[in-house]
Amino acid sequence: MESSSRTKVGPHRLRPLNTPVPVRLRVDAGVPRAVLQRAGWRRVDLVEEVWRVDDGWWRPSPVARTYFRLALESGHVITLYRDDLEGTWWAQNY
Amino acid sequence: MATAKFARDGYTVVHSVNPRSPADQVLDLRTCVRYTAAMVGCLLIRSFTLACELAEHRELVGLPVAVADGGLVEAVSPEAEAQSIHPGQTAREAVGLCPTLGLLEARPARYQAIWDDILNAVERVAFTFEPAAQGLVYVGVDELLTYNRPLDAITGALLCCAPPALEPRIGAAPTRFTALLAARQAAPGATRVVAEEELSTFLGPQPVQAMPLSAEMLRRLRVLGLRTLGDLRALPRSALAAQFGPEGALAWKLARGDDREPLRPQRRRLRLIEQLSLETPLASRPALMVAWEQTLVRLARQQAFRGLAARQALLRAATERDRQWSRTITFKEPLADLNRIWSALRAVLDEAHFPAPLSELVVELCGLEPAVGHQLALPSARSALRARLQEGFRQLKARYGYCPVGRVVEVEPWNRVPERRLALIDFDP
């Protein structure tokens, strides 16, 4: 019998795009108030929208997130989310 | 001087030595082939599908359990059989008869994979083996005995070919049918050996219903009051042949232990396998098609496939919960060209209904043989452009060790989790 490579190709062969990036921010009562960017801390002028995403609750690694679309004092609009299972914050385009 | 002859019980070498000097005598002793009587081994796993399921669901052992495929019961445990459940019933009827019945869905691809592993293990132990069905394989034991290996060691090695949870049994006897009967009587994980001299004693009290005959003939034997093999072999062969035809003659041979046909060894299958594991199970058909294609491309690029053509492809997939899906595609002619193989596979995959999102894909090419040439078309401007592009990719690959070019595919564009919508798959020309 011919030996086969049987290579475990693994997830690196199908790499997800738009993966979340960890972000540092100041939070008050569960709502982001300032975000640390390259130029320094940026105050949040307005929380434009808040929504929840719960998915894959039947899987070993479920998703439970609260997304925030924030308008910063610099005029930029960014989207962040809080991982409700681990309590961590991430930036991700939605 | 040695003479060879074919005997009824297998190939034997008979030596008639007339040494001229002590040195010749030593030489003859060294070249002497041991005389061994025919001995067939039978590796049996009862109710293979059920055994595979119970091996993975140990909590169901000892309970009424049935395996159903397409709404029909396929295999039942002894506890379920005691409650009047038998193969061929509808699953609905079986549950009606036994409300506590544990009903498991059949996974044919999974059973085949387990059986392939067992046969691969048997191939490492034995020279000649003949698979008869899933869970039943005959092995030429006598040829292993000639290598001075004790019978215990051989049967022990055969038992190790199957996982103990499947409760394999070994029967060893001079004939194939007797070996099967012996294996049926052996305890799980044990061996029952029937020697040549006890063949008649062993076969005599065995029930005729154990013989591999048609249901009609077994019914007629029952009606005629022939219960045991002893009853059957007491009759003249001509009487059985006159009553039942060739099947009667076969029954007479089986009852006397005269079925000495040699094993038909399995032809070695040359095959190539490639596997793709997915971190996130894929449901999107376009993404799955890209993943299948990528797996095939990697397979076709294996060094072992160079200069070969495949007659058959086997596609296997597993879901997150280990449900299996498989298809076998036989090509109209041996195919060596990747595009032609992919065209054949794509037609099947387009129509396929997968049981759930897939987490593992396997492509296997078998029936491999040397490729023959095909008349190529004249090059066109488009193909020239593609060739230049591919040459560029090849140079990138030569420089970096891998092709740094990726291809964006829509995985699940509707997904609410952003990182699951798009993915980058290696573009590896």
What separation lies between the terminal Cα atoms of chain B?
64 Å
Give the proportion of residues in helices of chain B. 25-40%
* Bulk shape of chain A: globular
User: What's the CATH class label of the largest domain in chain B?
Assistant: Alpha Beta
Which outline of chain B best applies?
elongated
Spatial extent as radius of gyration of chain A:
18 Å
The sequence of SSEs of chain A as H and E is: EEEEEEEE
Q: Could you state the CATH homologous superfamily of the largest domain in chain B?
A: DNA polymerase, Y-family, little finger domain
Oligomer: heterodimer
Strand residue content of chain B:
15-25%
Strand proportion of chain A, as a percent range, falls in over 45%
Which two protein chains have the largest interface (Cβ within 8 Å of the partner's Cβ), and how many residues from each? A-B, 27 and 38 residues
Tell me what the CATH architecture of the largest domain in chain B is.
Answer: 2-Layer Sandwich
Number of helices of chain B: 16
Q: Compute the number of structural domains of chain B.
A: 5
Number of helices of chain A: 0
- Strand pairing plus helix content of chain B: what structural class? alpha+beta
Outline the biggest β-sheet of chain A: 7 strands, antiparallel
Into which percent range does the helicity of residues of chain A fall? under 10%
Q: What's the main sheet of chain B like?
A: 5 strands, mixed
Features:
heterodimer; A: 94 residues; seven-stranded antiparallel beta sheet; 56% strand; B: 429 residues; DNA polymerase, domain 1; 5 domains; five-stranded mixed beta sheet; five-stranded antiparallel beta sheet; 37% helix; 25% strand
How would you describe what is shown here?
The complex is a heterodimer of chains A (94) and B (429). Chain A has one domain (20-91). Chain A has no helices and eight strands. Chain A has strands at 14-16, 21-22, 25-28, 31-37, 40-55, 63-72, 77-83, 88-91. Chain B is α+β, with helices and mostly antiparallel strands. In chain B, helix 12 (237-244) packs antiparallel against helix 13 and helix 14 (285-300) packs antiparallel against helix 15 (338-351). The chains are: A mainly beta (94), B alpha+beta (429). The A-B interface holds A 1-11, 13-20, 53, 55-56, 59, 63, 92-94 and B 120, 123, 268-280, 291, 294-295, 298, 302, 304, 320, 368, 406, 408, 411, 415-426.
